[in-house]
Structure formats: C-alpha cells, structure tokens
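Exercise 7. Given the encoded structure of a 304-residue chain, write a plausible sequence.
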C-alpha cells in the first residue's frame, strides 16, 4: 500500500494526471507547476529547507576521504570497466524490473528519477550492449551517490543520500549456470580484494564472514561458490527474498563493539531477461556501502 498521502482532488483530474495525459503533456504541466511554485518561494524559505530537509543535507564524511576511498575501490576492480553515471535514470528504472515501489524513489518532473540504485542503471547499460552484441561479456563498475525516499534507520552512517560502490556482470548463460557462478565468485573476490587494499590505507575490517543464500534448487551453485573462496568463512542459508533470482551473497565485517555489519550485498537478478526479452541473458550485481565503510571502519587518516 502506498505511504504517500492522497490529495483530495476530483477523480477525473487524478485519472488524467495518472494515466490519460500523454507523457510530454504531463511533463510540461508539471514543469509549469514547479516554475510557479518556485516563483512563490523567498530566499528565507529556501534557507529553511536547506537547514531541515534530509534530502539536501551535505554528507557527513569529508569529500577528500570519499574521493581517496573511491580511487582504492576502483583500483581493486581493475577487471571491470568504470562508468561515471548520470545523476538521473529513466522513470521506473527500478520499479519496472525489480520488487520495489516508485514511492521509495525521488521522481522528477521531466519523466526521470534520481538514481536510487546504480545496479539497476548498470543493468540498463548491459542490456543496451548485449542487444547489439549478444555474445559479449559485459563487466562494469561505478561509485555513485544515491538518493532514496524511504525512512532512514536512526543509526550512524544512514542517510537519505549515500555513496555506493557497485559491480555488474552480464552475458548469455552457459551450461550448468557457469556464468552466474563464475561472476559471483569474481564479485566476492573483488570485494575481498578491495577490503584488503583498504586495510593498507587506514581501514580495518575484522571478523569477516560470507553468507551464501540460495533457493533449494540452486544450493549446489552456492556450494560451488563457497568452495571457490576458501579464504573467508562461509555459511549456506536458504534464500527467501524474491528480490534475487535464486542466489545472494552477503559479506559482513565486525565493528569495534563486536557487532557484525552487512557491508557488501550481491546476487543474481532476472532484470536482464526482462530488459532484453531473452531469459538466457543473466545479470549479477553487487554493492558495497562505501560511505558506511568510511564512517565505521576507517581508523586513521588515509594514505594515498
């Protein structure tokens, strides 16, 4: 059920705005509305929003720290092509293929949305490339500031906007789920390598552990993945979250107070099959909460 308050307007007007108006006509109408609203705002009103709106507050982490962190993470992902994404994505970039609500995303008046999850945008780019070259293997990475509209946990490091380091791999599936297994192993190893690299530059990620979650029919793939990364303790669990396509991994690290933090999350997704109309096209994505890493796991000043 939507958590957005419904405005009391005539049902025919709501129908026209929601469904009947052509997209270009709707965008033009909304742009006119926002232009009029902006004309009514005083500098004092803008200042008050700057001071109180969680969506516009600056990040709590120093920008130099984040820039250096990004450099180390991207260096660890040398086998992936690095993309600098636009701050905007097509409207419904997430909700059209994934189990998420558009109400959790900041939509714009121009038929687009602010990027809330870079992995969905990377899936779009993978689909574009594979439609023109179906036999290709696409491997992409990015570090991106995201904005999400859902309530924020009242815990250190969580905010309405935050930085994520992402990996994405896509290709036509091979026999015995060969590509998905290989891609997940590469993602896990790349993230482990990134943590190892950061530990040489002022970070500590103690008590690391790997959780592999799979549906019963894909448990054998999870077992194959676990055996391929013996350098980290792994546990196998049953996957119940329908957001993933049968396989998920989570990489945790311990904070000084001894509590494990789920720092890295990834898995297989069915998005590429939907975007290309080819169910044999498979997509693996993973992400690290890099802003969370800077806040909780940085021990000393970074050394370039």
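Solution.
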């Amino acid at each position: 059920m939507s958590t957005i308050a419904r405005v009391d307007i005539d049902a025919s007007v709501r129908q026209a705005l929601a469904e009947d108006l052509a997209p270009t006509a709707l965008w033009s109408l909304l742009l006119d509305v926002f232009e009029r609203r902006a004309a009514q705002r005083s500098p004092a009103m803008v200042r008050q929003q700057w001071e109180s709106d969680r969506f516009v507050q600056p990040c709590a982490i120093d920008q130099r720290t984040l820039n250096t962190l990004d450099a180390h993470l991207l260096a660890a992902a040398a086998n992936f092509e690095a993309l600098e994404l636009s701050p905007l994505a097509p409207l419904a970039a997430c909700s059209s293929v994934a189990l998420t609500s558009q109400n959790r995303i900041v939509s714009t008046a121009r038929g687009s949305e602010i990027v809330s999850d870079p992995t969905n945008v990377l899936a779009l780019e993978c689909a574009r490339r594979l439609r023109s070259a179906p036999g290709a293997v696409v491997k992409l990475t990015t570090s991106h500031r995201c904005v999400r509209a859902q309530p924020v946990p009242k815990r250190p490091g969580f905010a309405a906007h935050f930085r994520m380091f992402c990996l994405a791999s896509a290709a036509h599936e091979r026999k015995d789920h060969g590509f998905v297994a290989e891609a997940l192993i590469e993602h896990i190893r790349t993230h482990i390598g990134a943590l190892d690299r950061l530990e040489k530059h002022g970070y500590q990620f103690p008590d690391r552990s790997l959780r592999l979650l799979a549906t019963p029919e894909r448990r054998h793939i999870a077992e194959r993945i676990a055996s391929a990364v013996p350098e980290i303790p792994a546990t196998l669990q049953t996957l119940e979250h329908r957001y993933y396509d049968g396989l998920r991994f989570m990489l945790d690290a311990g904070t000084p107070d001894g509590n494990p933090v789920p720092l890295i999350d990834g898995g297989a997704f069915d998005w590429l099959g939907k975007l290309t109309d080819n169910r044999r096209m498979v997509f693996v994505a993973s992400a690290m909460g890099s802003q969370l890493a800077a806040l909780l796991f940085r021990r000393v000043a970074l050394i370039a």
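Remark. The first strand starts at residue 81 and ends at 82. Students should compare their own answers with the one above.
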